[in-house]
Amino acid sequence: MTEHPRRRxxxxxxxxxxxxxxxxxxxxxxxxxxxxxGALTPPVYTATAYVVAVPTEKSDPASALGxxxxxxxxxxxxxxxxxxxxxxxxxxxxxxxxVTTATSPDAPMVSITATAPSAxxxxxxxxxxxxSLTAHATITRKTTNVELQQFARxxxxxxxxxxxxxxxxxxxxxxxxxxGGLALLVRPRRERETPGAPTxxxxxxxxxxxxxxxx
Length: 215
Hints:
57% of the residues lie in helices and 14% in strands. It is an alpha+beta fold. A hairpin with a 5-residue loop joins strand 2 and strand 3.
């Protein structure tokens, strides 16, 4: 099968490129793509509120720790978020997608983290969910003998938590350089003839076969 002329031309050009050109091209391209991604992606802000489980006279710290784990799991349920949507100013489904909780195995504390496109909205969402969770815990306090109290309100973050264009550009540059290095490994190499290399001479068997064929 005859090789396509364009393919042969592309292969010849690839062989003539200096080795560092693939690394440079990959790094520059990756840096441009990463910088554009960071500049065009809307910023994301993160705010966190904390609530703590406190045992009543009829309970103990171990029970408070166990209920803190339970409250952390139910904080993002629609029963809790439905009461928080009015204070947060966003639907409960939005709160369910952008609010997460975390608990500690050593302390009866629940962290409620919200992410939003603006700093004030992120703080409002985290505080609304923490108040709603505290209110639900108050209703069942006589049954659980554990009270949930607000430990720290969420404050408006001063800087976005999403990566900056500079960071995404650096990551893109690193990734592009890595891909350029991989391309360099599979790059077709030029075949160089060694000066003064001896010409291959047919062996006796090959000469005999040629002579026999001529008879």
